[in-house]
Amino acid sequence: MSRGIRQSKELFMYMIAGLGNPGEKYRHSRHNAGFDTIDRLADQYGICLREMKFEALYGKGLIEGRQVLLVKPTTYMNDSGRSLQQFVRFYQLDPLEDMLVISDDVTLDCGVIRVRKQGSAGGHNGLKSIIACLGTDCFPRVRVGVGKVPTGGDMIAHVLGRIRPEERENMALGEEHAAEAAVMVMEGQIVEAMNRYNGMRPEENSPCKARG
């Protein structure tokens, strides 16, 4: 099916995929910021994440009038691409136009997000897997800062660890911003999303600050 034919339809599929590791052991870990952002979108738009297909937990629904797949690969982080490749093939998605990936980022402070149209994996194993499986790095992504590894700390222990109590407010705001940015990207407003959110401290757009 050609891209032109698909775009002539009133609704066509868009996939927002959040990366993470399945299971209670990893629930709400730093590495699962993508999963948690997908859950936030599902709650906000009333999309049930209860279907299993292509090695992923997913749900279908409408976000701002567009038919959307919310996807959480269950392959574990390092094999995320194997799952997303199956969705891309089945739904005939164009990664650059019909897909967005949300992941954690240990180079950003907790709750800071970064929106990018395309680019390298930046050392993130989940993004590496997606790039390898799709054969392209041309897909938009939103990266959610989960805090840098402490000096002398262990990377694996850091990303698989839980957010500390003093970080939770910023983390929640970061995931909220990531969800908002994802919707903007889906609507073709990626430049606006980059201008609004890249470099923003989470507290700069918090409800408390807005109330003065």
UniProtKB/TrEMBL annotation:
tRNA-binding as a keyword? yes
In this chain, tRNA is annotated as bound at Y26, Y76, N78, N125
In terms of InterPro entries, this protein maps to:
Pept_tRNA_hydro (IPR001328), Pept_tRNA_hydro_CS (IPR018171), Pept_tRNA_hydro_sf (IPR036416)
* Residues at the active site: H31 (proton acceptor)
Cytoplasm: is it a keyword of this entry?
A: yes
Any one Gene Ontology BP term: rescue of stalled ribosome
* Species lineage: Bacteria, Bacillati, Bacillota, Clostridia, Lachnospirales
State the species of origin: Shuttleworthella satelles DSM 14600
Q: What NCBIfam families does this protein's entry cite?
A: pth
Catalytic activity entry: an N-acyl-L-alpha-aminoacyl-tRNA + H2O = an N-acyl-L-amino acid + a tRNA + H(+)
Question: What is the protein named?
Answer: Peptidyl-tRNA hydrolase
Pfam families, alphabetized: Pept_tRNA_hydro
Residues carrying the site annotation Discriminates between blocked and unblocked aminoacyl-tRNA: N21
The top EC class is hydrolase
Annotated HAMAP family? Pept_tRNA_hydro_bact (MF_00083)
The record describes its quaternary structure and partners as: Monomer.
What's its EC? Answer: 3.1.1.29
| UniProt-annotated site: Stabilizes the basic form of H active site to accept a proton, residues | D104
Looking up PROSITE patterns in the UniProt record yields:
PEPT_TRNA_HYDROL_2
A GO molecular-function annotation: tRNA binding
Keywords for this protein? Cytoplasm, Hydrolase, RNA-binding, tRNA-binding
> What does this chain do?
Catalyzes the release of premature peptidyl moieties from peptidyl-tRNA molecules trapped in stalled 50S ribosomal subunits, and thus maintains levels of free tRNAs and 50S ribosomes. Hydrolyzes ribosome-free peptidyl-tRNAs (with 1 or more amino acids incorporated), which drop off the ribosome during protein synthesis, or as a result of ribosome stalling.
Q: Which family does it belong to?
A: Belongs to the PTH family.
